[in-house]
Amino acid sequence: LKSPYHGGHLEVIVGPMFSGKSEELIRRVTRAVIARQRVAVFKPALDDRYHAAQVASHAGRAIEALAVQDAAAIRAHLLGEGALLPDPGQALPDLVGIDEAQFFGPELGPLVLELAGAGVRVILAGLDLDFRAEPFGCMPDLLARAESVEKLTAICTVCGAPATRSQRLIGGQPARFDDPVVLVGAQEAYEARCRVHHTVRR
Ligand code: ADP
Fold first, then answer.
1. Assigned CATH class of 9-152
2. Helices and strands, number each (H, E), in the chain
3. How is domain 153-202 classified at the CATH fold level?
4. Complex ipTM value
5. Above 70 in pLDDT, residue 193?
6. Digit-coded pLDDT (tens) for 80-138
7. What residue owns the CA closest to ligand 1's atom 18?
8. Euclidean distance between CA atoms 43 and 45, whole angstroms
9. Residue 154 CA to ligand 1 centre (angstroms)
10. Which residues pair with 84 in a beta bridge?
11. Which of 20, 46, 90, 134 is deepest in the core (most CB within 10 A)?
């Protein structure tokens, strides 16, 4: 049930949208819970409040998580710098899981390395590439530093081959390279695509 690594370490699960990253995070966390380990799972909040939430996969499985605004909030929650820790004397969890890790800023790196150094099994799930197929934020650095990396694939919606990229569609058309990440009022969708069928308009 335990990870093969001795002591604290970093596991990273990456791949495009729909590749099963959340499912794999849920699977690993569930096994730790069965083994009676203490786990804490975080995800980015879309608003500016901490709140109880879930990590849910597209296939419908879910586990409890805490939605937080940034890496500092995870730090405050786990290390007691702030009013969030229910019991300030409480030890660190055995396992810290973080979903959608690519949305946390550069402060995520030092925090997860500190946790791993303090004996925590840290599991990150997130996109390795953005919609342009460029390395996403803090992920390249953490992929390099991790003990274990799992790259998952989805199924290309065009040809059925393994999909490694997330196709962004705006009004049914491939997004442009310099389209803003958030487009107010646009009809947006994402599809899993292979290298051949992933398109970015220039
Ligand atoms: P991720 O966290 O990587 O976005 P999830 O774990 O949320 O992935 O969802 C994976 C699930 O999405 C699959 O098990 C499958 O049920 C569903 N799915 C929908 N579209 C696709 C696709 N094109 N390729 C693979 N799985 C897909």
1. alpha beta
2. 4, 12
3. Wheat Germ Agglutinin (Isolectin 2); domain 1 (3.30.60)
4. 0.96
5. yes
6. 764 344 444 468 999 999 999 999 999 999 999 999 999 999 999 999 999 999 999 99
7. 18
8. 6
9. 6
10. none
11. 20
